[in-house]
Amino acid sequence: MANYFSSNFTLGILGGGQLGKMMLYETRKYDIKTAVLDPSAEAPCRIACDSFEQGDLMDFDTVYGFGKKVDLLTFEIENVNVEALKKLESEGKKVYPSSETLQKIQNKGIQKQFYKDHRIPTAAFRVFQNKNLLNEAIVRKELHFPFVWKSCTGGYDGKGVSIVRDAEDIIPLPDVECLAEKLIPFKNELAVIVARSPSGEVKTYPVVEMEFHPEANQVEYVICPARIDEAVAKKAREVAKNVSEAFKHVGLLAVEMFQTNEDEIIVNEVAPRPHNSGHHTIESSYTNQFEQHIRAILDLPLGKTESKVGGIMVNLVGAEGHTGEVVYKNIEKIMAMEGVTPHIYGKKETRPFRKMGHVTIVNEDISKARKIAAEVKKTIHVISKNDQ
Amino acid sequence: MANYFSSNFTLGILGGGQLGKMMLYETRKYDIKTAVLDPSAEAPCRIACDSFEQGDLMDFDTVYGFGKKVDLLTFEIENVNVEALKKLESEGKKVYPSSETLQKIQNKGIQKQFYKDHRIPTAAFRVFQNKNLLNEAIVRKELHFPFVWKSCTGGYDGKGVSIVRDAEDIIPLPDVECLAEKLIPFKNELAVIVARSPSGEVKTYPVVEMEFHPEANQVEYVICPARIDEAVAKKAREVAKNVSEAFKHVGLLAVEMFQTNEDEIIVNEVAPRPHNSGHHTIESSYTNQFEQHIRAILDLPLGKTESKVGGIMVNLVGAEGHTGEVVYKNIEKIMAMEGVTPHIYGKKETRPFRKMGHVTIVNEDISKARKIAAEVKKTIHVISKNDQ
Questions:
Q1: What is the pLDDT of residue B4?
Q2: Beta bridge partners of B28
Q3: Which of B291, B332, B347 sits opposite A301 (nearest CB)?
Q4: Count of CB atoms within 10 A of residue B165's CB?
Q5: Average pLDDT of A326-351?
Q6: Could you give the domains of chain B?
Q7: A208 membership: H or E segment, kind and range
Q8: Mutate which of B297, B328, B347, B363 to test chain A, going by most A C-beta atoms within 10 A?
Q9: Closest Cα to residue B224, out of B381, B95, B373, B325?
Q10: 3-class DSSP state for residue B225?
Q11: What is the per-residue pLDDT for A218?
Q12: Chain centroid offset of residue B229 CA
């Protein structure tokens, strides 16, 4: 085992974005050599890895060729060529999470069916191969308004998801394989990150809660620990553990869930990698999610998942009406607030709602952290230089 | 101020070792561009900075030329060409800590005289230009055994320091400018890191304690908070603040002190940079020392210096009798212990007592952390591959 450290072992990472960059801090801490593949010549990982290769993550030959050169392969993004991963695995290369896990997750229809097959609580659903079949089901009264529409592939960050309340809402939907899900009212959107190693060691992080803007229906704060009953938190961690067990994944699995009005926990979807809902762990946890991912895929003992202090994460997104060279207005003011750490993703240009970074607020008292987080949101503005 | 972030500002760092490497994680977090100068082509910073230059840190032209290319200059090592820094400053370049601070610290004779001039408590001393003058003072009975001998320049990590108990002990000492210091019995060796910004904002970290091996007279554990009376801790932070105030330094100042048997605090020496006694802050503090250094030199608000949890740091040094390609025996065992994080410095070869990394142990209960730290020390062995 110990031969990962200061040796010739090379970890390959597919995707060179922000998640990869944060993962690379941890490989540096352990002195683990890294190689990164990303389509962009300006990928954030470029200057933090040992070797960088520019190439298409969906191209079989590129991914296969890259994989051949490394000792173990992981990814920081789901949209990679699964067939190449399969071939690498068949030749004995370690790929964590496995192509099998990834394939089940890449297609939301398959993912939902997987939950059903494994008796994991999730909203009732039906898969449709195209828009026409979806429309037919409505006409035949097999499917009723309202429902949640999801594109089976390609969606992320809320893209590829729509609430369909009437026939009007169907018109703008693209003609793709999709699923229609029962719209279940919920009290809270929760998430639990589970880490699992090849030896089967499993640890869950405390439950986080997404607090939404009262009008804009956008997540404003990711709060850890979630302000929910102990019994509900326990149930959420149990459900997340069951999902992890069903997938038998290796690495991290971020499980997004709803707490219904009846305090049931139902699974929404999962991501097999470090996740936005775990960014707070850098400042709040004994083991941050990136270190935990590295520990898990290298089959090292998992770190303690408890929190040292309460943590809140706020996304830094481009302000409306601002496009161009970015300025973080008042960043020095938020840095003067207690327990506030900005993380800047280094994108040169801002545009409305573009994710430009995040800010973590930590405090022993989560309600105090919540107040400071509100101050942070009010104070910092991601604007363009020309419109200052 | 905000223009450090995602802009064309470049921070120059003299020295590309481990301290620089840990500093670079923080510049990445803030997306600050960096350039590093180091004599070694294999410097740890090489793959973590934006641009790397190989060159002699003591050479005027090299340091001056490097400084001209960056917007602000700092260092992670004291042995750099001060004249070059002076010239850069005279031309308007920001250098933090300043050449003035560095010059006072580089020579221990000047440093001690500075404490005397500023009424900072320190052991009585005399400076000698060479070994002959030191011997004369002993012959004339102006200097009495025992005393502490220190080389005025070039000493670090305990090198260049000797306890002289009799004439025999003088023989091996080199013929250099030196000082003789009164040997004062002490209860504890303590340290406080002070951060100070150009605007004069000052914050002190909690007091740390060095626990020595009962026989080997080597620091075994750096413990935060120090297990001392609240009144003594308060005094130590006050003294450290006074030292900081006297230097009017910018950046970090690590102040090493003794707690005498009479509970007096006397200053031993200082380092104007991130320091071994602050490594635990990565895991234990609201703001780690490297982030704090960056905040300070960029005149950003200083971060909170309190601890989230208790922290203990153990150095990872090469085992006796082992030279060659390094193996971290049982590293996976210490990683299974609660709250344990190894930091591996990436040196390929081990040799007896070489600093190869450090391990941090954090826990809410410092006495529990201390027990785990003892387990860590007992368990991990930095050995060579051939002698396994």
A1: 77
A2: none
A3: B332
A4: 12
A5: 95
A6: 2-95 (3.40.50.20), 124-182 (3.30.1490.20), 185-306 (3.30.470.20), 309-388 (3.30.470.20)
A7: strand A208-212
A8: B328
A9: B373
A10: coil
A11: 80
A12: 25
